[in-house]
Amino acid sequence: MDFVFTVCDDAANEACPVWPGQPMTAHWGVPDPAAVEGTEAEKRFAFADTYRMLANRISIFVNLPMRSLDKLALQRRLDEIGRRLPEAG
Description:
This protein is an alpha+beta fold. The protein is built from two helices and two strands.
């Protein structure tokens, strides 16, 4: 593994396991859509919104100029992606 991203908001304060190969890690927390209560439409929206947030972050990640970033700069970029406020959908 080269990268590990945690996404559970509840996991932000938990210790992560040791990953084989010492991959770069970042926390990209998103609200848990399974915890949403409400109508079926509200629940579907929560899942769609979470998907959108993750898809946006993944898109930013795969478009990073990997070859021109040293390890420290890449880690900063990964952390920045996780800190971005979710864009309105």
